[in-house]
Amino acid sequence: xxxxxxxxxxxxxxxxxxxxxxxxxxxxxxxxxxxxxxxxxxxxxxxxxxxxxxxxxxxxxxxxxxxxxxxxxxxxxxxxxxxxxxxxxxxxxxxxxxxxxxxxxxxxxxxxxxxxxxxxxxxxxxxxxxxxxxxxxxxxxxxxxxxxxxxxxxxxxxxxxxxxxxxxxxxxxxxxxxxxxxxxxxxxxxxxxxxxxxxxxxxxxxxxxxxxxxxxxxxxxxxxxxxxxxxxxxxxxxxxxxxxxxxxxxxxxxxxxxxxxxxxxxxxxxxxxxxxxxxxxxxxxxxxxxxxxxxxxxxxxxxxxxxxxxxxxxxxxxxxxxxxxxxxxxxxxxxxxxxxxxxxxxxxxxxxxxxxxxxxxxxxxxxxxxxxxxxxxxxxxxxxxxxxxxxxxxxxxxxxxxxxxxxxxxxxxxxxxxxxxxxxxxxxxxxxxxxxxxxxxxxxxxxxxxxxxxxxxxxxxxxxxxxxxxxxxxxxxxxxxxxxxxxxxxxxxxxxxxxxxxxxxxxxxxxxxxxxxxxxxxxxxxxxxxxxxxxxxxxxxxxxxxxxxxxxxxxxxxxxxxxxxxxxxxxxxxxxxxxxxxxxxxxxxxxxxxxxxxxxxxxxxxxxxxxxxxxxxxxxxxxxxxxxxxxxxxxxxxxxxxxxxxxxxxxxxxxxxxxxxxxxxxxxxxxxxxxxxxxxxxxxxxxxxxxxxxxxxxxxxxxxxxxxxxxxxxxxxxxxxxxxxxxxxxxxxxxxxxxxxxxxxxxxxxxxxxxxxxxxxxxxxxxxxxxxxxxxxxxxxxxxxxxxxxxxxxxxxxxxxxxx
Amino acid sequence: xxxxxxxxxxxxxxxxxxxxxxxxxxxxxxxxxxxxxxxxxxxxxxxxxxxxxxxxxxxxxxxxxxxxxxxxxxxxxxxxxxxxxxxxxxxxxxxxxxxxxxxxxxxxxxxxxxxxxxxxxxxxxxxxxxxxxxxxxxxxxxxxxxxxxxxxxxxxxxxxxxxxxxxxxxxxxxxxxxxxxxxxxxxxxxxxxxxxxxxxxxxxxxxxxxxxxxxxxxxxxxxxxxxxxxxxxxxxxxxxxxxxxxxxxxxxxxxxxxxxxxxxxxxxxxxxxxxxxxxxxxxxxxxxxxxxxxxxxxxxxxxxxxxxxxxxxxxxxxxxxxxxxxxxxxxxxxxxxxxxxxxxxxxxxxxxxxxxxxxxxxxxxxxxxxxxxxxxxxxxxxxxxxxxxxxxxxxxxxxxxxxxxxxxxxxxxxxxxxxxxxxxxxxxxxxxxxxxxxxxxxxxxxxxxxxxxxxxxxxxxxxxxxxxxxxxxxxxxxxxxxxxxxxxxxxxxxxxxxxxxxxxxxxxxxxxxxxxxxxxxxxxxxxxxxxxxxxxxxxxxxxxxxxxxxxxxxxxxxxxxxxxxxxxxxxxxxxxxxxxxxxxxxxxxxxxxxxxxxxxxxxxxxxxxxxxxxxxxxxxxxxxxxxxxxxxxxxxxxxxxxxxxxxxxxxxxxxxxxxxxxxxxxxxxxxxxxxxxxxxxxxxxxxxxxxxxxxxxxxxxxxxxxxxxxxxxxxxxxxxxxxxxxxxxxxxxxxxxxxxxxxxxxxxxxxxxxxxxxxxxxxxxxxxxxxxxxxxxxxxxxxxxxxxxxxxxxxxxxxxxxxx
Lengths: 804, 804
Description:
The structure is a homodimer.
Chain A: H1 16-38, H2 65-82, E1 85-90, H3 96-105, H4 108-112, H5 120-129, H6 157-165, E2 171-178, H7 185-190, E3 204-211, H8 221-224, H9 227-236, E4 239-245, H10 249-275, E5 285-291, E6 301-302, E7 305-306, H11 325-336, H12 340-343, H13 352-355, E8 399-400, H14 402-416, E9 423-427, E10 445-446, E11 458-459, E12 464-466, H15 470-482, E13 486-492, H16 500-513, E14 525-530, H17 548-553, E15 560-563, H18 568-579, E16 585-589, E17 595-596, H19 601-610, E18 612-614, E19 629-634, H20 636-652, E20 658-663, H21 681-688, E21 694-698, H22 703-709, E22 718-721, H23 732-738, H24 743-753, H25 758-782, H26 787-790
Parallel strand pairs in A: 1-2, 2-3, 3-5, 4-5, 9-12, 9-13, 10-11, 13-14, 14-16, 15-16, 19-20, 19-21, 21-22
Antiparallel strand pairs in A: 6-7, 8-17, 18-20
Family (chains A, B): Belongs to the XFP family.
Protein name (chains A, B): Probable phosphoketolase
Cofactor (chains A, B): thiamine diphosphate
């Protein structure tokens, strides 16, 4: 356990001279921010501003930027005074010009991008590239040094900040939360993250709520409620708010410096108390409320309309600076109000007395290694899969709970990486419900509130994070991964849609960051979707939605992977594989209920590595023999039904040659030119034939299979059955029957697709229909499945077993 | 404006005798709740409990239920005492047995479902059907009388409650918020809804935070923070909390009765002050914090483990009541502890002195007409489309902003329905940004905080609702629609994914409710997705995601519709149509930027009604003539590019017969057996041919078009171009080029798919490549699109114009 260095304790208050320097630094950042939004050329305004110097398309967000720059300049002072390690999470990410400006001022920008040097020419390029084709985007994107948070879609700043702080005991994550963003659901819930942060082992988050009063075209809620309510709200959230309010720069500098000193003193005190054992209760963490005008220091009015301190400052306050000389004059005098000659030397470099204000080396917020977490990433130590293999003497003869086996594996992951403290399991109160509770043998759930004697697996030192908010689970994990650690997110399948848009943003981040050489790879975001659509016994229709994988499949092939392991050993293999990958998002779908086991660990390895394979023992076609019909399946429940359907066909139409193909890696179905996991055409055709009917039992919405296979030779013969959005609180078998993906419907479909089987075929159809009706009657009378369905085992031998 | 009736003011505190009756009523509801979870038969326990009486599968959630029943019983008293109109929103919806029990006790259940009468046989059926195949689901679902909220996916109770309260001045929406649910993002943000509720014209929401302490397997955050923080939090949220805490029923009854009297008195006082003009500031609304044990009155321990007051009470506290005699004895004594013979008469009816406690008629919460809002729904008065038509003298010769035209139409909608007060426009701070700001000619944004003299279109009486939370926009609108009103949600396309899961739940609600005869149809939920993927000039990659429609397309065909109107008149027609529909979710995707206009209003009507059609003027194939290639398009930007590609082909390869097909109604592409809007095969083939190449320029992810058309004759020849997840902050034309859906790529693809065009073809390809390169160079040098691209107009005549 790290002990705080005394350097983190209070420095003396800054002198007026020092504050005057900070003001100049701030002006430099503001100048550079405006320049990025407006200028193509003439960066230092050493010539009169002409139309040709102004960009033809003015894009960007000024309103939030001066506040972000103000915070940055003051954090620089605190970092230097205390030798603190600080990461800056910029909630209003569209204040991107501010982040770029500051990292250029401190030198990190030019180190990373040597073609943008620290001089007038560099400044010209810096301005030109912003929001310019082939240049950089307008947000605090992966391209922005020091950023782990894009802020394009608002709401996730604070939860990312907490993710970064966990298990980084020396880190302070300063997180600017915009008052617009504060209205979102994710952000509103994020304040309670402090109930899960342990000052003894974790870093600190310093939220800075930036009340600049307005969104795009409206006031913000938090800026207009009374100060009494505002204070109460943050006390209620577990914080001690410090208010910094005004618009006079000199007064504001003094207030802000004092507020940051108070906050950092308080953080240092909390650390000392907790790490020396004096305190153990959750502390009341400091936070800062910074109330400053939107578009502060910008034009007060344009065309007679209020701009500074109003929503008109949100994007580009002077709209027609290229076409209108009057507007251009406003822009010029605005930029000159920062007095660039007082800030930059002849060559366009920041003057030395200002450059000296920035921290050095990795203390610069643009260069803090936690903000490029791949650099700090250590490989996760993974247990031997063999130690966790489930014994499968013969396919379908034994049952097991796949996620329970995974829980034991994850328990070992916690043990093996206990010292590294770089693995977390997150989930919305479902670790036990999802049957991963073996992990509690190695660790607890983290909990900073009171703990009762009868509480179970709850402690301040736990590494399992449970809160009833998928947003927090996702956001914590993203922040944790982006700062170089590992994790796993287990979730009810239907409710992962709650974070569809967060998934989007993370996928977009990865797509861009993996193209940036200087960004070191980060661990993949791994989802286990369980308690899935087919087994929602307690909950019913509202809990049934297998569509997240459809959403995932829209993203760049480089980034996403989707797995449907059919049993425990294959789940173990897939999960183990995913934990070793980086820069990806892996989605694993697997049930938690007792289910037949099919593959030994050796078979599971071969089968999962292949992505899809023939289960010879299940079909009647001999190995290498062309079948009459292919029964394909993806997903544990559909696999069970497909194997059972194969059994029914074997019983009723023994002459028909059937083949069972199981698909684990859904992306194997896609054409190889669409996805790197796509099976080569000959391999695909070898599995699915080029002209035989394929009855495909799929876990989710059938359309996804059509969409993935539409380029395949035999696509016209693939008949997919899956979830049809039919469901309620009912028995497991009734669920598959409602959606017509049960063994009887599958066998009936196979017969319908085969050449006419004559009298035997007719008899088989009649028999299947009778059995289906029998089951329906039994279920509605008894409220449970017929024992021979729910306890069904594969009744045949498996001499030719193979998992390839 | 309605004035409060004095009957809503304080009644005298209930006597001990009255409270004793309430306690018995509560016990009856608890008894019926347990019975639903456990019993197949022997409902009144008049025989000794045997295994055969117990359900084989025990499903349901006991933990929250006694608290819900407690609230219900006390609300009944208040409703009667004050003749109040109250709707009960049950956040912990899996307390479904409680809602069913109470509506059965008050008689509404048997009125709606006469096969479940109010007697012993009815009770037996009531028990049996719960979570039973063919019966009712376990949540407060559409099947549950009085419910407008399922509560399967947690987080939306409070926002639904507010939606129900808007414009219902006499209504009180009592909303039980579970402490698990309170951890979600959507709920955390919902508390601020009171900033948008005007007591002068709106009803009241009475939140009842139910702290029963535990989720599935964890304590809850709000139940374990200090009372000081808890109180501060709700004061911060703008409430005056009233605490009801304990576990002794008698004391709790007294506290709860007093708390509700205080709360209803406070609501009555607020109404009177605001409606008489005495007060105008946002009031501090009452709320109740109810702290009671989870599984209250259930078994204290089972198998030596704590159950009551702990998370083990969450679902089924006595797990093996059928198989284990000991467990069965626990169940029997638990149920008998409610003393059923003291509650129900010989015939199994609730005893008359208890039945008298329930309100009568529509005052019963299960029968409140607002909870079956279709019954109160009045048709929206819609303006004449002709009054808003954009003049289109010739296709492609004029430009217009589609959403601006829609804004003027919606302005009229507000005017025409001003008196009915039954229409709201919601959006996350984007009404003006999305160019719908003409609506501010008719109404303002609603705002209950202070209003500054320089604020714009902001007032307490506004009917536009803007908050930076898609969750709140969606939830308010759902609540508003389900209580019988109309609305429209305008949103940035990318960020509508934030409410993917809320969309799911609403679609599921509609799928079920439209099958229930007694549920009257409610107005459709209408989305306008704008500021779409192709025009995110200020924002870039993070704001680019057209995948919501993919998500929507997974839902039941009866429920969903997706429209891509290509211009202003078609947008007007589609929006007008959507506003007239019911029980659906309509998604309209349309840009806000100036764009070419193609169709007169008459043409737009015919074209939109057909769903898709040939634009003869754009192609070179004569009407009725088989083309060599079809250029298809859906979406405004792809339509522009496809028309331009047709122009390029006309110029470069005048011998090639092209046909342009525009698709407005995306579901027209699906096979008619998959969607009611699916074009008949002959009509589809007449548009897309049976064997000619089709180059399809699509707004979103290309796979959706493949998936929708995979059953079509000519599917193998459909080559789709759309968003490939490539984007950044760049020019509009560069965006289409990055994704290869620009006019040049489309024309090149058409040529590649045509039979060899010889030298002319080669020359055309070279020319197209040259122009493409020229544009790329120009863009990267100038930072804007070549004027002849950005100002492009259709350079040909249109003698044969048609919009069919």
